[in-house]
Specification:
Helix content is 43%, strand content 8%. It is built from 7 helices and 4 strands, in the order ααααββββααα. The strands form 2 sheets. Strands 1-4 form a two-stranded antiparallel ribbon. A two-stranded antiparallel ribbon has the order 2-3. Helix 2 crosses helix 6, helix 4 packs antiparallel against helix 7 and helix 5 packs across helix 7. The chain is globular, with a radius of gyration of 17 Å.
Length: 191
């Protein structure tokens, strides 16, 4: 089977199209609450193999990848420049899922059932996770519902903060929304 382990069997839906066609009413709040719980996991209990993300170094790596692909996409160059000019100051790192979005959650009739695909987990800024599921690509056509294609950012953030998540900084959130969209664009360019 490789690395990993099976905790228990869960029967639930993972297909974003099916989930978003008729989402459980609690789903957006469930996603905010679960993310707050993930970010609250004590650092001392996180395995030593989980890397610490240095935002400045990660951005420099994205830029180097872009240049190695030819550096010929003006919108990507602009996003890199914007990110370089808006890197937020470091924060105390938390466990970051790294891929917290529709398609990596299991949903049942009563709401969120499980969070899947932890291979991008690292220590870093929790705002990265908050923003990732709000990227346009992960809304699956529901552009007017910026939080996972389900609802408003205000409701999502209220659920996160209400469950004990750190206060969300709008500027830091915006940085991560741009950064992760840039990251996704480079992944697509690489493919």
């Amino acid at each position: 089977m490789g690395t990993g382990y099976v905790m228990r069997r869960i029967v639930a839906e993972v297909n974003p199209a099916k989930i978003l066609a008729d989402p459980p009413p609690s789903l957006l709040a469930d996603l905010g609450r679960e993310l707050a719980h993930i970010h609250a996991i004590p650092r001392a209990t996180v395995p030593a193999a989980i890397p610490l993300m240095d935002t400045v170094a990660a951005l420099a790596d994205l830029k180097a990848r872009f240049l190695s692909y030819g550096g010929d996409r003006p919108v990507i160059a602009l996003a890199i420049k914007w990110c370089e000019e808006h890197v937020p100051p470091p924060v105390d790192p938390v466990l970051v899922h790294g891929d917290y979005r529709m398609g990596n959650v299991m949903v049942g009739p009563d709401g969120l059932a499980a969070v899947l695909d932890w291979e991008l987990a690292h220590l870093g800024d929790g705002h990265e996770d908050l923003a990732f599921g709000c990227m346009a690509v992960w809304r699956f056509g529901r552009i007017g519902r910026p939080a996972f294609g389900l609802g408003s950012l205000e409701d999502y953030i209220a659920a996160y903060e209400g469950a004990g998540g750190a206060r969300v900084d709008p500027d830091r959130f915006r940085f991560w929304l741009v950064y992760r969209t840039l990251w996704w664009a480079l992944g697509c360019l690489q493919m």
